[in-house]
Amino acid sequence: MAVPAAAMGPSALGQSGPGSMAPWCSVSSGPSRYVLGMQELFRGHSKTREFLAHSAKVHSVAWSCDGRRLASGSFDKTASVFLLEKDRLVKENNYRGHGDSVDQLCWHPSNPDLFVTASGDKTIRIWDVRTTKCIATVNTKELKPVQSINAHPSNCICIKFDPMGKYFATGSADALVSLWDVDELVCVRCFSRLDWPVRTLSFSHDGKMLASASEDHFIDIAEVETGDKLWEVQCESPTFTVAWHPKRPLLAFACDDKDGKYDSSREAGTVKLFGLPNDS
């Protein structure tokens, strides 16, 4: 189904200076054509399917730039890479070498064969899926900040830039998501539907949807330009990580164990896909 273009019309920006937060949240006059179109799409594509990836909980998921592969990092000290085949994930390889949990990972922005993992062992490793080997290891050093802005009254937990380069979003322990103008460094919008600290964020490939998640048992999907609720993905446990596919409205995510124990029957070590056809 073709997705209609988003309703036009930029949001009004506050008059405060760089690094300040606008003291309001925007109020929309009703769902945009984009929201209505995506809601119609998800009504027929709301199926979630899970795939076993690790022997312990999954901390991070990320798509390659071409959308062919999904990588996951886990408490079990490994990374896994899957191939996306139609509406399912097929495990390609498992990557070992870290001495502690793999907490974050990301792919090269233009090379779909390279990805990087960051671990509690205080190293980052660069992997090549063509050889399935680590091609470089870097011991992390203290980084110096370039600029700081006051974004939240509580700790900021996550940050993401939208693929268009217009905004970045931050998630905080105050359960708020704030949307910032990259050029002006002004907060233009806030999202407040979560009740627990925001753990993870992801912009859709067109920059028009923002997924956010926390210990709440749902993932909030909002329209970026209005802040309107677009969809809600139900979960059975807190969500650690979310990642939109780089070319289609398909969301990968991973949740915490239901009872805190590493038992695959209780969602430990699984990654999930939302946005699959209901009849698949």
Describe this structure in words.
This protein has 280 residues and is mainly β. The protein has one domain: Methylamine Dehydrogenase, Chain H. It is built from 1 helix and 20 strands. The strands form 5 sheets. Strands 1-20-19-18 form a 4-stranded antiparallel β-sheet, with no helix packed on it. Strands 2-3-4-5 form a 4-stranded antiparallel β-sheet, with no helix packed on it. 41% of the residues are buried.
Structure in a nutshell:
The chain has 280 residues and is mainly beta. The chain contains one helix and 20 strands.
Task: Please specify the SSE layout and strand pairing.
Blueprint (H helix, E strand, L loop, with lengths): L32 H12 L2 E6 L5 E6 L5 E6 L4 E7 L2 E8 L6 E6 L6 E6 L3 E6 L4 E7 L16 E6 L5 E6 L4 E5 L5 E5 L8 E4 L5 E5 L4 E6 L5 E6 L4 E6 L6 E5 L14 E7 L4
Antiparallel strand pairs: 1-20, 2-3, 3-4, 4-5, 6-7, 7-8, 8-9, 10-11, 11-12, 12-13, 14-15, 15-16, 16-17, 18-19, 19-20
